[in-house]
Amino acid sequence: MTALLETKSLTIRFGGLTAVDSFNLSINEGDLFGLIGPNGAGKTTVFNMLTGVYLPTEGTAQFDGQLINGKNPVQVARLGISRTFQNIRLFDELSVLENAMTGAHQHARLTVWESLFRLPRHYKEEARQRERAYELLAFMGLDDRAGLTAKQLPYGHRRKLEIARALATEPRLICLDEPAAGMNTGEKSELSALIRKIRDELNVTVLVIEHDMKLVMGICEKVQVLDYGETIALGTPREVQNDPKVIEAYLGGD
Amino acid sequence: MRRSLATLLVALAICAGMNLFLAQFIEEYVVQVINMVGVSIILAVSLNVINGLTGQFSLGHAGFMAIGAYVSAFFTTDLSYFNPDTAEYVTDPALVSSVWGYLGALIAGGVAAAVAGVLVGIPTLRLKGDYLAIATLGFGEIVRILITNFEKVGGANGLSGVPQFQIVLSGEGKDALALDGTFFIFSFVIICVLLSAQLQRSTFGRALIAVRENELAAEVMGIPTVRMKIFAFVYGAFFAGIAGGLFAHLLQTVTPASFTFMKSVEVVVMLVLGGLGSMTGAIVGAIVLTVLPEALRDVEQEADLPGIRMVVYSLVLILLMIFRPQGIFGQRELSLRLLRRLVPGRRISGDETPKPSEDRKGTEL
User: Fold this and answer.
1) What CATH number is given to the structural domain containing B192?
2) Res. A40: pLDDT tops 80
3) Does the pLDDT value for residue B149 go beyond 70?
């Protein structure tokens, strides 16, 4: 079976600094994959390369057999990769519902003329987007807040809304960048359940970057550990947890 | 579609009625100010799509307006110019002389401005914030200077003798019952406002706002940000061009001096006053800032304080920016729902949001 997402010696340099060095990753359809590592390990940089935000200096990234490095974020989104951001990037002045609806914009099959002149397809599209957005908001437990503006939401809900918006693009792979950052224990366990539900019920492959070891170990089936841009361990949570190199990276060695 | 068409027809009928009423009962000067208000509304609402919705700070609106004004006047006006070969003044008769020709000329002006919008859009949209503002400002100045040096349309003196058109309903000569400038201007106001409202409340409107709110997130959601920005420029430029054409035929002269950088700033100030991003705010801003200087002109004469007009005008703006920097409306729209919320005793909570099956259209304005 070929991997859904596969990178081969993906490298990016900013001037003299090699942020990520020869990064290999292989994720199969249906995986719940964790990418962990200490601060500054290059996890977010990997995400940025996968979603077309950064152009890798070397190496390749393939999604479903198609080369994706060199594609821009819009093209990557069309192929079916979506993501959230570590520092939440919602459309603050739009409502919760509208935020989710923008995720569905890329699947709109209508021209701007049809919207300007209110032709039948405009209404069909609006209904489709609204329905899908409501489904996903309900899935994330936000449907009762659909009418609020995004900036009115409390922090934990903003994270969830970002996930709902990403899901509205109908991705095959969703990349979550530190989804539990800043959440309390209760919110974290709720989020863990939701992430598992995304994979199990929506059949979306999940790639999580996370700081919180407990969360990653609890939900991920495969974990890869990154330190200073290099992979230092790969395996099941249990294997990785006992790896001496990982312990050294996290706790510091002598 | 049917609903918008019905709205449009009713609105056009109201325009016609207003036109006849004003021509009959109101003094000409006041009618002129009202017509200018109409032109300002088109300018402000169209610029709001670029600056307000999409968040691309453009200072080039006077340039688009100038293109529309000159292109439409070029078709409708007898052009007199000096021919250096024969050393004589020659006059080319106007290309169009009917009302339909006038409408065609206006549309041509809008299209020419829209084409300019694409041409400006493509190179400048890599720029953001201040840099974009400077580049669009430069565009406006380039247009003005090109026109100044284009002798066929009068150069620095501009074009005079731009005709006015009317649709005669009954009668003849001076007593004829006719639809004139007011009708044309406010018909386009209605079209511009209606289309802009429908744009704003569509998937494309949300995409434009997404670009403003967070460009990177918009891109990652698969919204083609560059295309959306160019679209905003084209849309805004088209209506600025139409406004320019209406302006030219209202004043019956066009000079490059009408389209300086200050004109662009004036439109931006209308937006900021009303609330950047709010279409109803843009309309209110356009009305206030067009009427205020004229109203103050009277005050100036009566109080015998020449120059006080600009002092008050500036003061109003300064006070507004101190006490309400987000503008009169902020980013809100004046809608039936907002009005309902202002009625005491009723509170709108989250559960009043329409459910998917409900129809949300048509609550605006």
Assistant:
1) 1.10.3470
2) no
3) yes
